[in-house]
Amino acid sequence: MPIAPSLLRWYDRTKRDLPWRRAPTPYKTLVSELMLQQTTVAAVIPYFDRFMARFPTLAALAAASEDEVTALWSGLGYYARARNLRRAAVAAVSQHGGELPRTEAELGELPGLGPYTAAAVAAIAFGARTFALDGNGARVMARLGGVSDSIDVPATRVRLRAAGTREVPRGRPGDFTQAVMELGATVCTPRNPRCGDCPVRAACVARAAGTVDQIPRRTKRVARPVVRIACACVTDGARVLLVRRGRGLLAGTWSLPEAALASAEASAAAREAARRVATEVGVRGALLEHQGAIRHVFTHRDVTAEVFRIRVDRAGRGGATQRWVAPEGMTELGVSSFTRKTVALGLGSKRDNVARRS
User: Fold this and answer.
1) Annotated catalytic, 33?
2) Any idea which fold 4-133+149-185 has?
3) Closest listed residue to residue 73, CA positions, set 98, 101, 37, 99
4) pTM above 0.85, yes or no
5) How confident is the model at residue 102 (pLDDT cuts 50, 70, 90)?
6) Active-site residue, selected from the candidate residues 33, 104, 182, 258
């Protein structure tokens, strides 16, 4: 029995009032879909509202600098999404007359857009009969089909997307994709799913077999690597020196100069590492004050930063990869929450010299 009729009736009754669903446009769909990847709806809403106020159209986004875009993204994490969104907007303006292409294939050719985003925008914004499988959708489809294979395995996700695609109705394909996501977010949750409220419970293999709590199965995650770094907070008393990260974690954002440390290195080695990175940015012979350590757990690594304050009499000129910024001026740049914490610790008083945990 097709699940679409029951699912869409439920969606019409219960769907959440979200800003990207009000007066929807393809551009709003694109922005929301990239923001929602790896991020909760509650966290995204204020960022989405600010982003749309600053960049109300695809053309406005394409005309913005990378710093302007990442500045509004600051704190949302996964900064590659911001860069990818801007790249896609630039390509759409230059290659498609300022509009997003309408087909899944053409959307997938825009730089920075992966298969999921292309399918989601094609279905939701343009009514293409396709299915976008996100984490919520994968859980719903795995339970409906009683799929016990790990949903982290690409072959399993291909299978689940194919199952979802077969269920897509000829009318309202975009609402169907959103309804599956909504079901996973609000009813078919990872823990304690509300099966009694599920509009498609009669078709659920896992519910019939009593295996809802065992599905979906995930591959056991490898423990996050523990990383230690030394940060140099170079300051003239009013401003702090930030450098643009070229690649790797938080690429494209601005941060304190830093150097990696071996996990067993003593505090003296951290001090020398901070002195070395300070020299690399043009500060020599300065006194280092150890301000403390701060821990920040990222998705794929557990970082502890030893922060050293280095006072200089006069700020330098800066440049394309270095900037002197007042703390309140960091809102104009793409600065991660991790960097905000290290800057705050670096500029703090000596009596705050304690290890902190985020």
Assistant:
1) yes
2) Endonuclease III; domain 1 (1.10.340)
3) 37
4) no
5) very high
6) 33
